[in-house]
Amino acid sequence: MHMSKDLLDVCDLSVEYRTSDGTVKAVNGLDLRVGTGESVGLVGETGAGKTTTALTILRLLPPRVGFVTSGSLKFDGRELLELSSNEMQSIRGNQISMVFQNPMTSLNPVFTVGQQIQGVLMQHRHLSREEAKKKAGEMLEVVGIPGRRAGEYPHQFSGGMRQRVSIAIALSCNPRLLIADEPTTALDVTIQAQVLELMAELKSEFSTSLILITHDLGVVAENCERVAVMYAGTIVEGADVKDLFEMPLHPYTRGLFGSLPDLESPKSRLTPIPGSPPDPMGLPRGCPFEPRCVIKEPRCKAARPPLMEVSPGHTVACFRVNHLLNRGGVA
Asked: Among 65, 118, 194, 310, which one has the highest count of C-beta atoms within 10 angstroms of its own C-beta?
């Protein structure tokens, strides 16, 4: 379900890291839209640029190293890239929040979990210390942690409980957009399911838009309405989850599905994607997937394909997309 009003509109975004070893082109001409109340899965291999995209939205790129070289980032019509540091500070953690991949490094070890929730509430909601303390206990209860544990420190909690604390902090100001960067990576399967279920419940309760960053297509299928597939710093395919799972069109997307185990398939072996992702310090001139693609043609090496809409809400960046459509998505 695509919502009519875009809360977040990322257009032609490019980001690079300038290091002593050279320039890393982490994000390259990325387009992404998130509707009000919508859940969007951002999928791709490690190094695809997913986390850099999230950090750029929050304006948290490392200073003097990370640079936005082109593009626009509009949140509810406001251009985030033009806001002052103070203006951005009033949005970050308030209207846009993020749950990081590793809760042990995202939580401050020298403050109690209650103090960390209180700090956000006092800064953005201007509550008194006593009001913030009461609200912090309530937020812990919301994520399934007894409020009496507000006086404990992060190291006194398990990995799953720490992630719940991170979610409580992120949702304490009722943000309009929540970015979850692989929030279940460090957790075992049972706790993963609990955390994802909790996020879905809270998203529904608070009417929050969600960007769920993951490399797990199964997680996207269960928790998102739309999905955007990233490769080498750009979106190569975007669609409603149902459409993408029924007919993936980009050769990279089809490669991802082909490398997943399927208990109902008679195949005895998986089909891996040949080769490796390109070096972001030396991206191909044309389509970034061309060196690994099994259906490439000469123009794929010479030019980068634009992101084209092939059906309502389904976009693909591939010169051979008509060939794939005519064959029902089969190469």
From this structure: 118
